[in-house]
Amino acid sequence: MKRLAQIAPTEFDVPERFSVDPRGRYQSHWKALVRPRNISEVQDVLRYANDEILPIVPYGGGTGLVGGQCFPHARGAICLSLEHFNEIEINADNVRVGAGVVLDQLHLALENTPRHFPMHLASSGSAQIGGLISTNAGGVNVIRWGNMGGLVMGAQAVLADGRIVDGTAGLRKDNTGYKLDRMMIGAEGTLGVLTSARLKTFQRDEAKAVIMSSIASPQAALDLLCEIQSSLVEISAFELISGEGLRFRLDAGFDVAPIGCPDWSVLIELGGMQVNVDEAVEKLAGQLPNAVLAQNENQSSKLWHIRETIPLANRHIGAIASHDIALPIDLVPQFVMEMDKILKPFDLRINAFGHLGDGNLHYNLFPSHGRAKKDYNAEKLSHIVYQKVVEMGGSISAEHGIGRHKALMMEKYGLGEKLSAMGDLKRAFDPKNILNPGVFFSKM
Ligand SMILES: Cc1cc2nc3c(=O)[nH]c(=O)nc-3n(C[C@H](O)[C@H](O)[C@H](O)COP(=O)(O)OP(=O)(O)OC[C@H]3O[C@@H](n4cnc5c(N)ncnc54)[C@H](O)[C@@H]3O)c2cc1C
């Protein structure tokens, strides 16, 4: 291990912040923390780990919610931080960024330019480009601009044996065989280490509007979404929020939302040409008498703050089980209603919220008042939820990934064949299984 320190900046006494994950499920065992400064150091670190058959875990902002950035095994691993890869190069219609650039830094760098990068999520103060690509992150604007994978023009990564794959030349056309760099999207650090990427940027909207309103039911929210979709305005975000989530915020000490705590509400962001935004807002004001329309950027941020603090409020209450699931969009209301009935006998509080426009719900279960988490069988409850998701043709992981937390679920919920084909790919890229062992494949 001492040789590592001759290859790149290395610490054997690893700071605690690299060892905890946001949900407090895993405590990592690191043999060392390495922070390479350039791509050749990454190559040398990987060649060394490959020769010595040492597990190595690429580490971004540490905000992953499925334990992919953790290594809770006694065997120990090398934690490879990409934080020195923080260069940002702004081009006409794209940016070239290092894998260690924090998302908020990228937004800041683009602030006074005509273009923006449309990835927004509550972890943007820490999540890095490498982590966002590796988890194919979603966030609140997927309905309009797609998820992280769709925003990547090309990526650069180092493979386990030190070879480089590079798709960052900025070519619009390049049909020279397999798109190896794109294999890194959603690979959760198991196929290579991302070092940089070229990302698409977009012209800023002429106008935008942020609206929060109570809504009768998830079905009414879906009907509203479809109606707006058939107009000329662009929908940048369409979030469903449950009354339980708003009440949890109050328990956690956050301000009351301007619409109070209705059973269901929606947070909508519209954008595009001024005339189309104005027309849509006028129509919505007629349909949603209790709606609150942000009058300026500060009020927009306040409305978004309500949505963004729901995960913090959830943590304050303490979930029995959390589920990041996707369903065919038109089945979301049916799922919510059927699950209400199925779970009624278990005496729970359910906070179902999320990106309705993407069919993505965060379906989280909490103890009822006066009861504790330990009074419930979390595994049994999760099984009921996932079974229903699969039965309705949905996905057991919408945007957070599989990591370690869901590795055993792949086979259990009908993804056995996919997992086996992924295993073939993994063996081709990383025959000694040094890159993030335990992620996707629970057998190490
Ligand atoms: C409050 C909060 C809100 C969130 N909201 C959302 C949301 O709305 N949508 C969403 O999709 N996610 C969300 N997340 C989850 C998380 O922010 C994303 O998964 C994010 O993409 C992780 O980025 P990171 O840099 O923190 O990666 P890490 O947590 O450091 O790592 C995540 C995975 O990526 C791999 N990885 C990291 N860097 C590299 C690299 N350079 N090369 C190869 N592999 C790498 C790691 O090995 C690991 O498997 C949220 C998390 C929190 C805490």
Describe it.
The chain has 444 residues and is α+β, with helices and mostly antiparallel strands. The protein has 4 domains: 2-81, Uridine Diphospho-n-acetylenolpyruvylglucosamine Reductase, domain 2 (2-Layer Sandwich); 88-203, Uridine Diphospho-n-acetylenolpyruvylglucosamine Reductase, domain 3; 207-312, 2-Layer Sandwich (Alpha-Beta Plaits); 319-391, Alpha-Beta Plaits, CATH 3.30.70.2740. Helix content is 32%, strand content 21%. It is built from 15 helices and 18 strands. The strands form 5 sheets. Strands 5-6-10-8-9 form a 5-stranded antiparallel β-sheet. A 4-stranded mixed β-sheet has the order 1-2-4-3. It is globular. The mean pLDDT is 96. The protein binds flavin-adenine dinucleotide. Flavin-adenine dinucleotide binds at residues 22, 57-65, 68-69, 82, 99, 121-123, 126-128, 130-132, 134-135, 137-139, 188-189, 193-194, 311, 399-400, 403, 436, 439.
User: Can you summarize the main beta sheet?
Assistant: 5 strands, antiparallel
Using the 3D structure, state the CATH architecture of the largest domain: 2-Layer Sandwich
Low-confidence blocks of residues: none
Widest beta sheet: strand line-up? 5-6-10-8-9
